Amino acid sequence: MDSPEHDRSRRMVMRHFGPPHTPGLVTGFEGFLTATVGSLIDDVAGKERIDVVDDFAFPLPVTVTCHLLGVPREDEPRFHLWVNDIMNSIEYNPETDPKEKLDKGVQARKDLRQCLGELVEQRHGRPGDGLLSRLANDDGPDGRMADAEIVATARLLLIAGHETVVNLITNGMLTLLRHPQVLQRLRDEPDLVVPLVEELLRYEPPVQIIPWRTAYSDITVADTVIPKGSQIMLMLASGSRDPKRFHDPDRFDPDRHDNQHLGFGSGIHLCFGGPLARLETQIALTELVRRLDRPRLVADPPPYRLSPVLRGPVHLDIEQGDG
Fold first, then answer.
1. pTM above 0.70, yes or no
2. Smaller CB count within 10 Å for the chain: N or C?
């Protein structure tokens, strides 16, 4: 969306997602996140071989977002299935994949939209803690958000916020396993995780390219005129490794200072879920490093997703213990 519609929608959601109106929302998730991460690790702690994606990184964001939205616990398994089918259909290849893969994604989108619509309708006149309830009952300065807008916002949080967090956690674990001295530092110095996640967002961001921008007018970049109406592809990962901005940009350095990366975009479209994604990843990596027993990669490089936009391994198999 563009301004002013984008500004209005963003203001309405941010009233319930962060400062100044709900400053404690993200930090208040810390206990829930720690318990959820711990439960997922409990399920794999004794296994000699695990897949960081399937066993850990993939289920975590759906559980977190459902909790944020206020989805009833009994409905959560359906959300996991829907998100799984939608994400599988995104990389549908008509030459190699059965059409069922695409059809399941289409049906999952319909079912997810219908369920969210019913949940929003049920929340009218029943204020509660979940984001769906807050938005459905808020008559703020910009008026009340329409039900269709609330559903679209919830779907955005579930889908866009899912793949990015999966990739951030998985890219983070892969990077740590490739830099065992940093992994050991994190085990010994848990507070290192805050700058470490910022460096991951610069060094191996989950969103590498944004290909959906258009020039509003003729603009000049490095003596080259980009005509009005031209499609622009923003190479975020490249910008975050600009040697004019970052010293030794191809080196992973969790002690890097002044780390103004582009991992969450910039400007008016800066990812408003960034604070929650940061906290999820900080807790996830800290606990994985603390509790897994001598983890090591099975294959390097691992198999990657096909998308050039969202970069991350489709699987990250690791062994632990004596092997």
1. yes
2. C
